[in-house]
Amino acid sequence: MVAGRPLWRTIAAFVGPMKSRRNLPIWAFVAAFAIIIVMVVDPYSGEYADAAEAPSHWSQTGTQHFVMHGTFAINVARDAFGSVPGHHNQTLSTASGSGSAPTAGIPSPGSAQAIAKGILADKGMGNDQYSCLVSLWNRESHWSVTAANPNGAYGIPQALPGSKMASAGPDWRTNARTQILWGLGYISSRYGTPCGAWAHSQATGWY
User: Fold this and answer.
1) What pLDDT, in 10s, does the model give residues 106-160?
2) Which residues contact 137 (CB under 8 A, 6 or more apart)?
């Protein structure tokens, strides 16, 4: 295009009317030359990709997170417990919150749960702590005094090994009260309260 004039008109004016075969080679040469010029100067008529405008995904520096969901069983050895004068037990804080458990019903008289409820009441603990203990030991042993685990855990509180409960009485193998006293002592030394132990069990799958 010259001065607002279409390219083909410029070529036509330059070559002149094609009135004879003598002008055909000249016309063909000019047309071919014009096509080449157009392709070299603007081959895609402005349609091109600008790398400067493309978003750079490699420059982003975000962090990655890996989250696992589920309950995982972890075997740990439960050490002996004791009390130290002048020190207070600290309830474990966990992601599960307060560690509240479903409200437990009234236990049958003389049952292991009734014994536990009475011991907790003597310690000034109410139904909330009793409910946590019921849920905790339902998970551990279903309150069976002879519940045994292949890893060596035994009894209602699943002491590991079971012989540790001998510190609470020689009849630890069959006496629910002896096992419960040992189990509550273990919970007090590690988690402060049954709800503290239940919260830990909820978060980790063990206590």
Assistant:
1) 999 999 999 999 999 999 999 999 999 999 999 999 999 999 999 999 999 999 9
2) 116, 143, 156, 157, 183
Show Cβ contacts of residue 129 under 8 Å, excluding neighbours closer than 6 positions: 120, 193, 194, 195
Full DSSP string of 109-145: TTSHHHHHHHHHHHTT--HHHHHHHHHHHHHHTTT-T
Beta-bridge mates of residue 74: none
112-122 vs 176-190: helix crossing angle, rounded to 10:
50
User: Cis peptide before 161, with omega less than 30 degrees from 0?
Assistant: yes
| Residue among 195, 1, 160, 2 nearest 81 (CA) | 160
pLDDT at 58 over 50: no
Residue 44 and residue 47: Cα distance in Å, rounded?
5
pLDDT (tens digit per residue) in 151-192: 999 999 999 999 999 999 999 999 999 999 999 999 999 999
The answer to whether the CB of 169 falls within 8 A of the CB of 175 is yes
Torsion of CA 3, 8, 12, 13, to 10 degrees: -10
For 21-34, give the DSSP string.
GGGHHHHHHHHHHH
Query: 90: Cβ–Cβ under 8 A, 6 or more apart, which residues?
Result: 192
